[in-house]
Input
Amino acid sequence: MSATLRGLVAALGAFAFFSTHDAVIKSLGGTYQVFQIIFFSMLFAFVPMSILMLADKAVDNFRPHFPVLVLCRAGLSIVAMSCGFYAFTVLPLAEVYSLLFATPLLVTVLSVPLLGETVRMQRWGAVFVGLIGVLIVLRPGVIELTPGHLAGLTAAGASALSSILARKLGGKERPAVLILYPMLLSLLVMSMTLPIVYVPVALPDLGLMALVGFLSILAQLCILGAYRAAPAAFVAPLQYSQILWATLFGALFFAETPDIYVAVGSSVIILSGIFVVWRESRENVSEKTPVLRTANPRVDTGPQPK
Output
């Protein structure tokens, strides 16, 4: 198996793990508050993360070189994760992914004022078409916009800002640092909410929360491996395979069937996102540390070393 093919298989596996992760969150959301789910999930995720930390002998491996930017990015990751988790608990899976898939388009828009990048007309056209796709999914004025819709859009926006910060960091921070600090800050912040939101957790549900944490770490490791093995332009569009998993899991476990508006809107957003990734890969072919412009708030691990 060639390195590129290994990378593609790893990426498909990662997005399958994340989709399973999201389906489990949705199943837990009817019983527990999002903050409690995040706390226990991150607590269990810290176990495999600790093992990886102990196995890495690099000097100053987990000390950030730019602590302010790393902490800001960790805060944005918490916002993206909290809003994303909430959206999954109250909206159909496919509908949430349709909103999250706007993330690469928002990154393109924000890269102009925040990074001073030049965006040419083709990419602006793709962004415009993609936002039309978002409007097709939301149908403002036709259906009532719920807090779940607003949470999904907020997750996409926070994830886009997190990606911008990751680009500012470039290759100056280790991927392990960019995974570890959002996890630690999540545990700290969510522990403060537990006195308000905590309800006793049944043992099977505790196992499901542990599964969410392990799937999160496993998926991120697969993503890192995918970006080391295959070009970013090949790996990034595979995130859209999550819509297939969302449709499958939604039908099997939650009696969800995406309506025609979600299907059409998702298709428009996906095609626009793929075009943006393709154009960016051509314009930045000489970059050594491609940044993952992800549609999934939990996948954004910043610069990926080759």
User: Anything to note?
Assistant: The longest helix spans residues 3-29. Residues 3-283 form one domain. The radius of gyration is 18 Å.
